[in-house]
Amino acid sequence: VRLAITVNLNDAATPSTNDTTQDFCQADNPTVADIQVNEIGVVFYDVPTDGTPLVATEALESGIYYASLTDGSSNCTSAVRLAIQVTVSNPAGPTTNDTTQEFCLSQNPTIADLEVNEANVVFYSNPAGGTALDNTTALTDGAIYYGSFNEAGACVNVQRLAITVTLNSTPMPTTADTTQDFCQADAPTIADILVNETNVSWFADPTGGTALAPTTQLVDDTVYYGSITNTETGCESDTRLAVTVNINNGGTPSTNDNTQDFCQADNPTVANIQVNESGVVFYNAPEGGTAFSSTDALTNGIYYASLTDGSNNCGSTVRLAITVTISDPATPTTTNATQEFCTADNPTITDIQVNESNVIFYDAPVNGNLLSADTPLTETTYYAALLGSPSGCESGVRLAITVTFSDSEEAVITGDFEDICVFEEVTYTANPGKTNYVWTVTNGVITDGGTTTDDFVTVSWNAIATGVVSVSYTDACSGTNSDTLNVSVITCSDITISKTVNNTTPNIGDNVIFTIQVNNVGEGDFQNVVVNEMLPSGYDYVSSTVSTGTYNENTGKWNIPVLLSGESATLSITVTVLATGNYVNTASIDISTPVDSDPGNNESVASVDPICLVIYNEFSPNGDGSNEVFRIDCLDKYPNNKLEVFNRYGSLVYSKNNYNNDWDGTANVSGAINSDNMLPAGTYFYVLKTGTAEADKTGWLAIVR
Description:
Strand content: 35-45%
Number of domains: 8
Shape: flat
Distance between the termini: 189 Å
Helix content: under 10%
CATH superfamily of the largest domain: ntegrin, alpha v. Chain A, domain 4
Largest sheet: 5 strands, mixed
CATH class of the largest domain: Mainly Beta
Radius of gyration: 68 Å
CATH topology of the largest domain: Immunoglobulin-like
Number of helices: 0
């Protein structure tokens, strides 16, 4: 009998959920307990069967979780577990180009000023958790702010972006005076506000606003706010410096006459301009400009007067314009600034000659004493001024007239008169300051002066004789006076001549140059010098050059028109030396004016000793009786000669001491050819030694048969 056992299989139901695919944000730190199911007492596994139940606090990860329900009566779990797909999201956080950001404290930076690369970023004061800070929250120096995305319905990043904030502080500028006074006349601007620092900008408000330009005109009773900009951070002062500006204005001075006239002769200055107040300063412009010194000389133009307020030292905003006119009559004129009077005439001021009327005289160029018309003249300088009409002003610059007195005086001629060289120029003078001079000269020529207005005459004495110079003139006080001076005129001239030749031993037919030099070594000048340079028969004329004058090769005359003291004249003559004739060349001075005082040096001689060797280097010893021997002219002058002849190979073929024009082309030296044999026609080289080195000859000769 089998035992019957009834088995009851109990199965807990499978749990249910509203979403088998559930999403979670990593930033929320989700756990197994956060999985949504509709029942209570649900246990989760990480496998569909078996496995170990997961703790409810276990952090969720992306994957499939399996839910099982436990039956309370049987304690059985779900045979089929509920699978739920879990996704845990952790998006990337915001980014920035600078995790350490600097701000100017003066700009009151807030959360909204933090720089990130994305939108919808909120900031926290903690790296996790906490409440997002409002965008208007002021930033704090040294604080770290943590940024995270803030999109509705979206997960936020777990790791927040950390940004460290530095707030740069710039101190307020300083000043010695927070209430500053200015003068309206100075047209003060922002640039004129006094502070102790540079790089200060000014604003119309204590915060914000736009910086005022330095040229902005200051306004009375206005507060201006100064800020320094740090050149390294670019930050302005955290708190601006407040300076109150007051603009002061001095009153306009007054005058009894807006158009004032002055005399240049009074040397008027700025101090002479009439105003009713003291402490007035004058300028060259209605505004700004340069202040005049009270001692500055006045000129025609407008002067602008400013009154300085004693309480604030400010000048007038509106200056008083005064037109200044300077009257300066012209300086009087005269036909003679040095006027001579005769003492016997008892001259007075009225006798001084000027070209204008209304002229008054003083004893000084400026100021001085006014002289009456009947004041007796003395030898001094008087100063004339013209009285202008209608101004009544005198000339600013007075005319100076020097007064001298003349009495009768004896005429006297001064100048050298003893042993004057002929043709020498001498200047003679007579009493100066006279009129109607009449000069007379005998045995001389006037080269300068000598007119009716000249108190001198320059004479060239042109004859060796007694010269005479005389003068007469009119003396304003005593009539006509005259004087005569006898002059002893002598010859002081000495002329020399020299002659040289450039080659004293030329060959016959050579050209040589004779150089003749004429020198004036005396004190006087020579005129019309004639030199005789006629060539002797041993020369033929080729050419000539002269430094002065002309040379005629036909007459042999060299004419020199003028030869001044200390000068020289040169004649160079090129000639050909002839084979025969007279070789002694003599040059002499034939004529001169004046006659030379020393004729012993008026002749010079030069000559040559020509070398007459002439070699005829071609002969034809063929028995026809013509040109049968090798001929050399003038050998008789060289009895110790030696002739050697070489063939073209350098072999000696002929040699003879005391050669006498008798070689017919026969060899007398054995070698290339036997002695006594006739040499063949051809070219040979000869060496002629004369016993005088300068006369030795070498060359080629030709035998023609």
